[in-house]
Every structure is written in structure tokens, then in C-alpha cells.
Amino acid sequence: MGSTSAARQDTRNTASIKTDPAPDGIGFVLRDVTVSAKGSTGVPILSHVSCSVPAGKVSLIIGESGAGKTTLLNAMAGKAAAYATI
User: Fold this and answer.
1) Which domain holds residue 81?
2) pLDDT at 15
């Protein structure tokens, strides 16, 4: 029962992310996502990010420390809403 509640919570968090239905062969599409720390008036963590991830393929997200890789993955998974405004 606990995992069902977690799945429902994830669904609510992802509702605020702009996603498009994925075309055939694309597993996930993210369009124009901006993530800012809650309560922050400074520079966003991610600004106007769009990406697509192919279905059934290995994909890499690379970048320097502090570039927003983990924030991007959290936004894609619906977890960023816990600490950020999406």
C-alpha cells in the first residue's frame, strides 16, 4: 500500500511539468522546463530545458559539477517539486 501512495504522489508532482506525448521510438519528452529553488528570486537551476530520451536506449546526461544534471533527472521523475518550483 505504501508504494501505491508514492506512485500517486509522483503523478501529482509531474502534472506541473510540460510534457508532450512521445512520438514512436521516444520514451520521454520534456519541453521548456524551468526549475527554481523554492523561495528563490535568483537565477533558476534549469532554464527553458527541452530534451527527448529514446525508448529502450541508454542515454547520458553529462556536465560540470553544479550544472543541473540531478535537478533535471529529479524534474523528469517528478521529484523536483519537493524542493523547487517547476
Assistant:
1) 2-85
2) 38
Q: Look at strands 84-85 and 46-54 and give their pairing.
A: unpaired
Other Cβ atoms less than 10 A from the Cβ of 30: the count is 18
Low-confidence ranges of the chain (pLDDT < 50): 1-16
Q: Which of 16, 25, 8 is nearest to 76 (CA)?
A: 16
Contacts of 28 (CB under 8 A, 6+ apart): 19, 22, 52, 53, 76
**What's the pLDDT at 40?**
78
Domains: count for the chain: 1
Helix (H, G, I), strand (E, B) or coil at 81: helix
Locus of grid cell 500517486: 8
